[in-house]
Design a protein that fits this description.
The chain has 249 residues and is an alpha/beta fold. It has one domain: TIM Barrel. Helices cover 42% and strands 15% of the residues. It has an eight-stranded parallel β-barrel, surrounded by seven helices. The longest helix is centred in the C-terminal third of the chain and has 19 residues. The chain is globular. Bound molecules: 2-phosphoglycolic acid. 2-phosphoglycolic acid binds next to strand 8.
C-alpha cells in the first residue's frame, strides 16, 4: 500500500501536565525508530508541556478541538491562534464525544474544519454512526453525510491536509471493536465518497484511520486491511505499554 500509516493518540480529558510529560517522554524514546506517522493530542492545559517534549521528534502535536472563531467573546473556548502559538500542528474535529455530548452538528464542525485549514493546520475529521444507525442500515449514509458536510467548501488544494477517522460510536471506549472486514467496508465507502468529491487521486491518497477500542491485540489485523491506514486511539493511548505496540504494529 502506498499510503503511510498514521497512528494518533487522543488523550481526551486525562492527565495533568506532569502525567502528560511522563507519557510524552516515554513515547518519544520508544517511537524514535518507529516507521509510521505519529501524533498525540493532550488536553489544552498540557499542550505547551508536551510541545516542548515532542519538538524535534517524529511525534506530531494535536489538539482535540478548536473554537469556530479566531478570537472574541467565547467564554471557555480555545482558538486556532492560541493553538498555533503553543505549537499544535493538527486539530481533531467532529469527534463523536463533541457531536453527541456537546451537540456539535455538521455545520459547526465544517466551520471549524475550514478555519483550521485556513490557519495552516492539518485536520483529523472524525465520522461514525451510532449503534441504532448501524442497526437501521444507515452506517454508510451517516458517514457520507458527516464526510460531505464536514468538508463542505474545503478546496481540493487543502484535502491533502485532511485525515478522516472512522470511529463507529458503539465501538468507542466500549471494548467492542468493529471487525476488520466491517471497518474496511466503511473505509472503502468513505474513500469512494472522497473520490466523488475530489477525484480518484485524492481518494487513493487520503489517510483513513479507524478508531474504536483499538488495542495491541487487534491493531495489526485492522491495519492489514486495504483501506485502513492508521488508528485514532483513546483508552489504549493513555499508557506507553499499550500505545507503543499499536504504534509499532
Ligand atoms: P477508544 O477511543 O480507543 O477508547 O475506543 C477512540 C476515540 O475516541 O478516539
Amino acid at each position: 500500500m502506498a499510503r503511510n500509516y498514521f497512528i494518533a493518540g487522543n488523550w481526551k480529558m486525562h492527565k495533568t501536565r506532569g502525567e502528560a510529560a511522563s507519557l510524552a517522554k516515554e513515547l518519544v524514546a520508544a517511537l524514535k525508530d518507529g516507521k509510521h506517522k505519529y501524533l498525540v493530542a493532550p488536553s489544552f492545559t498540557a499542550l505547551e508541556t508536551v510541545a516542548e517534549i515532542v519538538k524535534g521528534s517524529n511525534i506530531l502535536l494535536g489538539a482535540q478541538n478548536c473554537a469556530p472563531e479566531e478570537q472574541g467573546a467565547h467564554t471557555g473556548e480555545v482558538s486556532v491562534l492560541q493553538l498555533k502559538d503553543v505549537g499544535v500542528q493538527t486539530i481533531i474535529l467532529g469527534h463523536s464525544e463533541r457531536r453527541h455530548i456537546y451537540k456539535e452538528d455538521d455545520a459547526l464542525i465544517n466551520i471549524k474544519v475550514r478555519l483550521a485549514l485556513k490557519h495552516g493546520f492539518d485536520v483529523i475529521l472524525c465520522v461514525g454512526e451510532l449503534l441504532e444507525e448501524r442497526e437501521a442500515g444507515k452506517a454508510e449514509a451517516v458517514c457520507k453525510r458527516q464526510t460531505v458536510e464536514g468538508l463542505k467548501d474545503v478546496a481540493a488544494a487543502d484535502i491533502s491536509r485532511v485525515t478522516i477517522a472512522y470511529e463507529p460510536v458503539w465501538a468507542i471506549g466500549t471494548g467492542k471493536t468493529a471487525t476488520p472486514e466491517d471497518a474496511d467496508a466503511i473505509h472503502a465507502y468513505i474513500r469512494k465518497v472522497i473520490g466523488e468529491l475530489y477525484g480518484a487521486g485524492a481518494a487513493e491518497k487520503i489517510i483513513i484511520q479507524y478508531g474504536g477500542s483499538v488495542k495491541p491485540d487487534n491493531a495489526a489485523a485492522l491495519m492489514a486491511k486495504e483501506n485502513i491506514d492508521g488508528a485514532l486511539v483513546g483508552g489504549a493511548a493513555l499508557k506507553a505499554d499499550t500505545f507503543v505496540p499499536i504504534a509499532k504494529f
